[in-house]
Design a protein that fits this description.
Elements: E1 6-7, H1 20-30, E2 35-39, E3 44-47, H2 48-64, E4 72-76, H3 84-92, E5 96-100, H4 106-116, E6 120-124, H5 128-135, E7 143-147, E8 154-155, H6 156-159, E9 179-184, E10 194-198, H7 199-211, E11 218-220, H8 227-239, E12 243-245, H9 251-261, E13 265-268, H10 270-277, E14 292-295, H11 302-311, E15 316-319, E16 321-323, E17 327-331, H12 338-343, E18 350-351, E19 356-360, E20 374-379, E21 386-387, E22 402-410, E23 416-421, E24 426-428, E25 431-433, H13 435-442, E26 448-457, E27 463-471, H14 479-487, E28 500-502, H15 516-528
Parallel strand pairs: 2-12, 4-5, 4-6, 6-7, 7-8, 11-12, 11-13, 13-14, 14-15, 27-28
Antiparallel strand pairs: 1-19, 2-3, 9-10, 10-21, 16-17, 17-18, 19-20, 20-22, 22-23, 24-25, 26-27
InterPro entries: AMP-bd_C, AMP-bd_C_sf, AMP-binding_CS, AMP-dep_synth/lig_dom, ANL_N_sf
Family: Belongs to the ATP-dependent AMP-binding enzyme family.
GO molecular function, one term: CoA-ligase activity
């Protein structure tokens, strides 16, 4: 078959002409009597009417602080009922919104704050010290508002008291092409950037997700540092459904919440599915409401997808591919692709609505046909505007397609497969080695919980494959046993000639991605020590 550009389906409905603030405001009014959000950690809930009133009050308070569309407002908090409110309030004013993660280091936080120079930060009580230390050397003035108790700063609770003019308040009018939301890139291959979405581009991204089938109540663990949390809340606002969240991941609590709230739709990282399928008391809970488990962010072994489908017989577990720069890249249509989902365990589905996708040779940029691996390039109405205060010209090819830095391919049925980051591939004796291809095989071993593969320098051979492995509880394995397991399942060039290092835990970014470079450096240093 000839090389071609894949085209996702057309949007069934045009995106609203509203700003992001108007979208939230109008839908909160439309669905006022419905439950909007549930904190699964505390079992507290809130209606759309309550969300609207509280966010209006905070918006009025921010107006008194002279927050406008020219300003950046940042949040640094784990998931609570409260942390949604200032995000909506800032969007009503057309301000640019960004989010930090309380688990970040001071150095990382300093870099992100310097990127966007916020005028105001809403921060959870436990992370006040992080923000204070991160702002010490800053050259900009930032006001702090605290979720919780504080004698030094304004408290969030002080902003949600009744305000004059609540009934008359309406979101301000701003250009829908203005920057509305900024998301930080993962920083796995360099310093993070602030990815800018306009009101229009992000609402296109919401429509992509909604058209793909996310229309019911959703359960997720991600904070607003991740794009997925944003997608979940905007899809819920569009459909008037409920968002259930927790502050962290506790396996038994996940099962309890699915049973209590009759969850139909669960979003989770692939690594967390292993905790679900190893939970010994799962039979105590009724999970029959579950229809879809969507996984994204990292590769997932086909055997684990099968195990999830067996573990949750009423649900289908699917992989999807998304990027902060564009929203949903590809996914299976939950209404029309049931037969394909059963056959294509490793695929991320078809290009999402409005998405153009092509596979090109990373060196020549030549368009590649089906089943040939190359870099994935994308174009869509939901594409980012660029990087905040940064040059994004090198991120696009001459036809305006976004260079993802991901290696993948598509098959004869136009199903997309994402394999690896370009910068994570390496060469052994002139062969391209794709780490995730070996990792998937390693995870088939019953004793291996997690595995990361990387290249170690070895003179004229280039780099030899090596691995860091986390074993499951109760298992003991040697590097020789793992190599013998691989020998029967991979090409000779993919064997772990660089050895196996056993660790208790793997370092990850706040978005759950393994920091491969940090692991590689650790192994190299340990071998030379």
């Amino acid at each position: 078959m000839a090389a071609r550009v894949l085209q996702g389906p057309e949007f069934r409905h045009p995106v609203d002409k509203d700003t992001l603030g108007q979208f939230f405001f109008n839908n909160a009014q439309k669905y006022s009597d419905r439950v909007c959000q549930v904190d699964g950690s505390t079992d507290q809930s809130e209606t759309y009417a309550s969300v609207k009133v509280r966010s209006i009050r905070v918006a009025l308070a921010l107006q008194k602080k002279r927050i406008t569309s020219a300003d950046v407002v940042i949040l640094c908090s784990a998931n609570t009922l409260d942390n949604t409110i200032p995000l909506l309030a800032a969007s009503y004013l057309g301000a640019k919104v960004a989010n930090l993660e309380p688990s970040l280091s001071v150095r990382h936080t300093q870099h992100l704050l310097a990127l966007v120079t916020p005028k105001l930060i809403f921060v959870e009580e436990a992370a006040v010290g992080l923000i204070e230390e991160s702002l010490i050397s800053s050259s900009f003035d930032t006001e702090i508002v605290v979720f919780g108790q504080s004698e030094k700063y304004v408290r969030f609770s002080d902003l949600v008291v009744p305000q004059e003019g609540e009934e008359e308040f309406r979101p301000v009018e701003v250009d829908v092409e203005d920057v509305a939301l900024m998301l930080f890139s993962s920083g796995t291959t360099g310093l993070p950037k602030a990815i800018c979405h306009s009101h229009r581009s992000f609402l296109w991204a919401t429509l992509q997700t909604y058209q793909g089938g996310v229309r019911n109540s959703v359960f997720h663990f991600t904070s607003f540092y991740w794009m997925t949390a944003w997608m979940m809340i905007t899809c819920c606002f569009k459909s008037g459904s409920c968002r259930v969240f927790t502050r962290g991941f506790d396996t038994e609590n996940v099962f309890r919440i699915i049973e209590k709230y009759k969850i139909p739709y669960l979003f989770t990282a692939p690594v967390l599915t292993y905790k679900l399928t190893s939970f010994k008391d799962a039979s105590k809970y009724d999970t029959s409401s579950l229809e879809v488990v969507m996984c994204a962010g990292t590769p997932m072994a086909p055997s684990q997808i099968q195990k999830m489908n067996e573990f949750f017989p009423t649900a289908v577990t699917i992989l999807c591919c998304g990027m902060s720069e564009i929203g949903v890249v590809s996914s299976f249509d939950l209404e029309h692709d049931r037969e394909l989902i059963k056959r294509k365990y490793s695929s991320c589905g078809h290009p999402a609505a409005g998405v153009q996708l092509k596979i090109v040779d990373p060196d020549s940029e030549e368009l590649l046909p089906p089943n040939q691996k190359g870099e994935i390039l994308l174009k869509a109405p939901s594409m980012m505007k660029g990087y905040y205060r940064g040059d994004a010209s090198q991120a696009f090819d001459k036809e305006g397609f976004l260079k993802t830095g991901d290696i993948g391919y598509y098959d004869e049925e136009e199903c997309v497969y994402v394999i690896e980051r370009i910068k994570e591939m390496f060469k052994y004796q002139s062969w391209h080695i794709i780490p995730s291809s070996i990792e998937v095989v390693l995870l088939e071993h019953p004793g291996i919980k997690e595995a990361v593969v990387f290249g170690l320098p070895e003179g004229e051979n280039g780099e030899v494959p090596a691995a860091c492995v986390v074993l499951k509880e109760g298992f003991t394995l040697s590097g020789e046993e793992i190599d013998a397991f691989l020998k029967e399942r991979v090409a000779d060039r993919e064997r772990l000639r660089g050895g196996v290092t056993f660790v208790q835990v793997l370092p990850r970014t706040p978005t759950g991605k393994v920091v491969r470079k940090e692991i590689r450096d650790f192994v190299i240093n340990s071998k030379t020590a």
